[in-house]
Amino acid sequence: MRLGAIEAGGTKFICGIGDENGVVFERISIPTTTPEETIGQVVGFFRDKEISAMGIGSFGPVDLDKNSETYGYITSTPKPHWAQYDLVGEIQKHIHVPVAFDTDVNAAAFGELEWGAAKGLDSCIYMTVGTGIGVGAITESRLLHGLTHPEMGHILVRRHPEDHFEGSCPYHKDCLEGMAAGPALEKRWGQKGIELAGNEKVWEYQAHYLSQALVNYILILSPKKMVLGGGVMKQEQLFPLIRKKVLDTLNGYVQHPQLTEENIQDFIVPPGLGDNAGLCGAIALAKTLQQ
Ligand code: ADP
Ligand code: ZN
């Protein structure tokens, strides 16, 4: 089986061909410039690949309502040229196969559940902390959707008492993304995340915000695994800091063997699929069309 997959991001589109076991045969990265240019290259890549279905995980917000006239569109993004863009429609004009479409983070959650860190479970969340913060969720084996789709990267968080940074979210200023995504780090501290590796205060603040988010997701969704990826999570020292703060904040209220000092390192984890979570997730989405 040859399945096409696209992880459509704000900086690059990763396109690949894989099979029903999540094995990736081929993978390319195309810069996200204008839709004409980028989609032209995407279509060129898939044209002679003889795929039978395609999965797309996209940056958003996106319209996932199959009854909507704008199903398959990227909707209100501030990214120039891409607002109200018919992503699925444009691709299907040229590549005549069924397409499964979801958010980039829902796709990554799906990939992690199928082949990665949450394999064998029926629920998980996948959070990316990168240029933005996005979270995908699966509960009772179903990808979580709603009126549109969850936007758990923009939840409100309590400030760190010493943090006077105004926040960098263009919509909410000091929401989670505005306080803890890569650009927020860079604006607050005047250096890129990777250059701040040795600054303890940076990661204490970071753990303060991210752990609050995870606690909220635990309280609302009760996921069986929490997978944390994206550029900022390459700072591995964040994991133990976040795990400790999650346990401190829950303060014993939610009782489960996973939520203990001994076991929490198996509950809050990096992606099992590494940087391929999104692409493999898109393959897993394509696979649902073949069953
Ligand atoms: P995107 O979210 O655009 O798909 P990434 O997940 O790579 O891409 O996130 C990019 C953000 O993560 C940037 O703000 C960058 O500064 C930050 N970042 C990337 N690598 C690291 C790292 N090793 N340590 C800390 N921050 C990083
Ligand atoms: Zn926001």
Automatic annotation (TrEMBL):
Domain of life: Bacteria
Species of origin: Fictibacillus marinisediminis
Molecular function, one GO term: metal ion binding
Assigned protein family: Belongs to the ROK (NagC/XylR) family.
Cofactors (names): Mg(2+)
Reactions mediated catalytically: D-fructose + ATP = D-fructose 6-phosphate + ADP + H(+)
Keywords: ATP-binding, Carbohydrate metabolism, Kinase, Magnesium, Metal-binding, Nucleotide-binding, Transferase, Zinc
Protein name in UniProt: fructokinase
EC class of the enzyme, as a word: transferase
Biological classification of the source: Bacteria, Bacillati, Bacillota, Bacilli, Bacillales
EC number(s) given by UniProt: 2.7.1.4
Xref: Pfam families: ROK
